[in-house]
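Could someone model NDP with this protein?
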Amino acid sequence: MIKAIVSGFTGSMGQKVLAMINGESDLQLVGAFNPIIKSLDPADYDLDDSVKVFNDLSQIDIAADIWIDFSIPSAVFENTKFAIEHGIRPVIGTSGMSEEQVSELKELADSKKVGGIIASNFGVSAVLMMKFAQVAAKYFDHSEVLEFHHEDKLDAPSGTAMNTAKLIHEVQGKDQESNPNEQDKIGARGGDYHGIKIHAVRLPGFVADEEVIFGGQGETLTIKQSTTDRASFMKGVRIAISEVMKRDELIIGLEKII
Ligand SMILES: NC(=O)C1=CN([C@@H]2O[C@H](COP(=O)(O)OP(=O)(O)OC[C@H]3O[C@@H](n4cnc5c(N)ncnc54)[C@H](OP(=O)(O)O)[C@@H]3O)[C@@H](O)[C@H]2O)C=CC1
Ligand SMILES: O=C(O)C1=N[C@H](C(=O)O)C[C@H](O)C1
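Reply:
Sure, complex below.
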């Protein structure tokens, strides 16, 4: 039995994770964490009596194999560090960590031989979009990334958009060039990752969509994915849980394992 603690369990993704764990015979929820909550009674959250509810990291004293985190950008680094330091394998979906923070966590997990994953997106369509973008990046020198999310999203750009730009940049091996005479009075050209422009839209009606547009002489290529239900992320989370149980290092990106 794989024993899991879910961090951010009261949130939109946390609730999907609880439902997923409930439906899997080899997974058991042993702990639930959210520092914002007051009550530690599992019944208040429709959880089994056997589940321990925590609102303070330092109080977590139970044995667990996996730490699943869908919390908030400002907390995910400390949460993940806590899990690794306690030998609990992190499966991290929360976005918003810097490249430096991810590197620090990788160094820590690898040195302690704790398997885990940080994935900007657990959706199969998004992972394939990133893989296809890497192929296209070999043939096009110019690209821009557009991401569209619900109005409650805290971080911009999305983790997926940043990861897509990073993967494109890795393939191209150089910064993208844009028109040096361009004048942008209000930041309309978007964010910039090594010359790759990133545009973040926040509107009610969206869950999570992303589009990568490649441009070349006389042609464009658009790769687009849409997420309409957060349940779609659970397939990737399930794959990741099984995979990290076999690993002794921190994997960055679901695209490394599917
Ligand atoms: N990798 C992927 O495939 C995906 C990643 N995400 C990412 O997951 C994260 C969560 O998304 P979503 O569920 O929509 O957001 P929600 O706001 O619905 O959920 C976040 C939850 O975390 C709780 N929380 C606040 N502080 C902490 C903390 N320090 N530690 C643990 N939990 C905390 C919040 O509590 P309260 O509400 O009481 O403040 C809330 O219940 C975001 O970063 C999002 O980008 C989302 C979808 C897919
Ligand atoms: O906040 C979200 O909703 C999502 N966040 C992740 C991200 O930042 O890329 C994954 C997906 O886009 C949904």
